[in-house]
């Protein structure tokens, strides 16, 4: 799923509950801010835990003289 598809789905679902056009117009900005916050916190080495969804976690991998950070997603067990 691409970001544009996520925004479209959010507009559809939120539109069923809220009729104010301001809320629908704010959705792309809200999505961008959520992703920005997640990226900022992961870059600091912080975990992101989202209830009933899962955890984003960074892990450092060292190969010889290099080190590289990867992001792992651990879904919530149902």
Descriptive overview:
- A hairpin with a 2-residue loop joins strand 2 (54-63) and strand 3.
- The protein has helices at 3-17, 21-43, and strands spanning 48-50, 54-63, 66-75.
- Helix 1 (3-17) packs across helix 2.
- With 78 residues, the chain is α+β, with helices and mostly antiparallel strands.
Report strand order across the widest sheet.
1-2-3
How much helicity do the residues have?
A: 40-55%
Radius of gyration: 17 Å
Please tally the β strands and state the result.
Answer: 3
Instruction: Classify the secondary structure makeup into a structural class.
Output: alpha+beta
How much of the sequence lies in strands comes to: 25-35%
N-to-C terminal Cα separation, in Å?
Answer: 22 Å
Biggest pleated-sheet summary: 3 strands, antiparallel
Silhouette: elongated
Q: Ranges with pLDDT <50 over ≥5 residues?
A: none
The helix/strand order is HHEEE
Average pLDDT level: 87
Individual helix count? 2
């Amino acid at each position: 799923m691409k970001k544009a598809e996520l925004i479209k789905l959010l507009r559809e679902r939120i539109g069923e509950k809220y009729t104010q056009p301001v809320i629908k117009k704010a959705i792309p900005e809200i999505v961008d801010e959520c992703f920005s916050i997640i990226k900022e916190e992961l870059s600091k080495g912080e975990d992101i835990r989202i209830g009933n969804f899962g955890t984003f976690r960074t892990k450092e991998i060292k190969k010889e003289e290099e080190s590289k950070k990867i992001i792992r997603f651990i879904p919530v067990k149902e």
